[in-house]
Amino acid sequence: MAELVGCREWILGGGAQLHDCCLSIEFLITAWRAWYSGISELSDWQRWRCEKVLPAGEGQADVSFLTAMQRRRLSPLSKAALHAAYPLIKHRDIPLLCCSVHGESVRTHSLLKSVAAGEDLSPTAFGLSVHNAVAGQLSILCSVQSPALALAGGDFPLLAGLLEAAGILRDGAEELLLIFYEEPLPEMYQSSAQSPTHICVTTMRLSKGTNAQGKKSALVSSTGTKIESAFEAPDYQLPLISALIEGSGVVPLGQGWELHLNAA
CA angle at residue 235 from 215 to 231, to 5 degrees? Predict the structure, then answer.
């Protein structure tokens, strides 16, 4: 199971909380994929890490592995999530954990404009705008019958998602798929929150480590690490992707926690 080192009590409920000086929570990252405005292959991400230049175009994720009828309902955000997640979950019935600060903000904004104009709302459009819409579509289109959970990531979505994932592993799951995803906010919201320039999705398959190969990783408490919230630094996934490309490193998560990849 996910191993807790130096901890006497771990309480999960209403979000993970750790007490009595828990020093680390260990697990394996057995596979990962990411998508950002057309970047999806490892060679492209390695080039980005060297050059630190992201593509300027919009780009849409390739979901040609789905039927035309299935693709029709997907937003650009959902397409990116499916594109990144499908190779990691294909033929695997494992839990899904989807984490996002704003979720389907473009679809939600469109519905709110319809309400303001006094127009009738489409039940389908509403169902595809809720915060668990991506989790639901992934579970249906990938034939996943295991539990699917959606988190509103708040100020520190990486921390929220990874703590919840560790809890799911500790609760009995052998492995799971963790997905972070964001899209640019509609213009009317950009005065109150910074917005990513393009859609970004990061997927990781996590394992307890029993009979599995992968990068040993750990959530580690640290009193000296401070980072900006996702509302101030909306490209919060990029430091994680950079460490995944390298295969090792330390990623600050917020609230005194770090992710150590390839931990000793």
Answer: 120
Whose tokens are 């101030």? That residue is 232
Tokens of 198: 């393009």
- Of residues 197, 194, 260, the one with CA closest to residue 228: 194
Mapped onto helix, strand or coil, the DSSP state of residue 129 is coil
10-residue averages of pLDDT along the chain (264 residues): 39 37 82 90 87 71 90 91 94 95 88 86 84 91 92 94 96 96 88 86 89 80 84 93 93 93 73
Interaxial angle between packed helices 76-89 and 133-141, expressed in degrees from 0 to 180 and rounded to the nearest 10? 50
Q: Report phi then psi at 125, rounded to 5.
A: -60, -40
Burial class (CB within 10 angstroms; exposed 0-12, middle 13-18, buried 19+) of 98: buried
d(CA 158, CA 154): 9
Q: Which residues of 132-164 are buried (b: 16+ CB within 10 A; e: fewer)?
A: bbbbbbbbebbebeeebbbbebebbbbbbbbbb
